[in-house]
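Why do we bother with holo predictions? Because pocket geometry can differ from the apo form. Keep that in mind while you read this record for glutamine.
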Amino acid sequence: MSLHLKSAKEILDLIKSSKASVKDVYDAFAARIQAVDPKVKAFVHTATQKPNLDTAGTMPIPIGLKDNLNTKGEEITCSSKILKGYVSPYDAGVVEKVKQSGGLIMGILNQDEFAFGSSCESSCYGPTYNPWNLSCVPGGSSGGSAAAVAANEVAWALGSDTGGSIRQPASFCGIVGLKPTYGRVSRYGLIAFASSLDQIGPLTQNVTDAALLLNIISGYDERDSTSVNFHVPDYTKALVNDVRGLKIGVPKEAFVEGLDPEVRAAVEASIDVLKKQGAEIKEVSLPHTPYAVATYYIVATAEASSNLARFDGVRFGLRKNPISTRKNALTDMYEETRFAGFGDEVKRRIMLGTYALSSGYYDAYYLRGQKVRTMIKQDFDNVFNTCDVILTPTAPTVAFRVGEKISDPLSMYLSDIYTIPANLAGIPAISVPCGFSKSGLPIGMQLQAKAFNEEMLLRVSYAYEQNTSWHSQKPNL
Ligand code: GLN
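The structure, written out:
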């Protein structure tokens, strides 16, 4: 029956009708991981604790967790040497919820070190590979999460998205990735990158599965001070195949230089699909879009430099004990630990962020960045006065080759040009498969909606999915 090829919804139906047991499901995915992960390398490690298959809850779905989500009893490292040996003593809010629902945690998934990156190459464990073409990157930073779902090693995965890290790898791997509204999902137990931008969200084979997983992880958590106490709907109710009369804004800034012609053609074709289904397409403008990447790299690095100050060799993971001749041996220990523990991209970001926050430069960079951030948010507010969703490509290109951009950070940063604005504005956004390049690599389109209107994203992408078959294609591994 090839259970591992089924979506979460299909697995639930099979279990409900007694055509498969929870053990059948678990065994099928465990075997799949053994068979293909040596090639894909999505897993940092499989779970040390096997779930209890006899007492499974209502949603016994094989799931993988990004290496920055605290999971009790598992080594969690943000794919960084500095956290090697840190075994988490507690569960993140989302992990608790997954466990309560009966989720079968299969293991911990690779990522760019501290979620800094767009290719999953900066992990201390080495890269993950794109299941559609093993010489290409899966995207990042949640590259392990996206690749594991695309390779059918898990039915669904959780990732985190600070500037696109769920959506861009979903797009590169031909799956669905959703970044919820800031505050919708608890960040408690997510090892922070940039606290005002981070959100945890689902990576799944299709839109129905995204709604199911969002149902599990959404909701207020008093342990996260930015969690919002706001009604959580049943997201599966939004899965209606009807976009008649909905207004879809297409920003003119999205179709600019640097956009791969094949991506452009696929996204334009998707716009036509939605138009034929009765949606109204409107050209709109988000005039501050050109400043989004620069703004993000000020705000995100500033917050990251502050968040990463805790990794000093004292409290977590790695500690170097240099033989110090200086008076201040403690400083030597900090310095050696951080020098040995952090990779190049992490050091680059700590330096950038510390610079942006330093007195004398704070006003020129961080404060100004925050002001531009507000203007970017106002652009969205204006467009959402007249539109239900905004449609753009998810990424300007399809997956690039391993090694192609790793020595050129600037070109890597630009691969998030479409995804970053949603994080700056705090709004929800989804990437759904919308085509393939001639070379057989997936293409994704992004939909963005008003804060706390994930239902609108799910409705439009579900309707799109019902009228296309991109999401049902599988890589040949
Ligand atoms: N690629 C972006 C960065 O490098 C976004 C990362 C993310 O969303 N975690 O910062």
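The chain has a mean pLDDT of 96.
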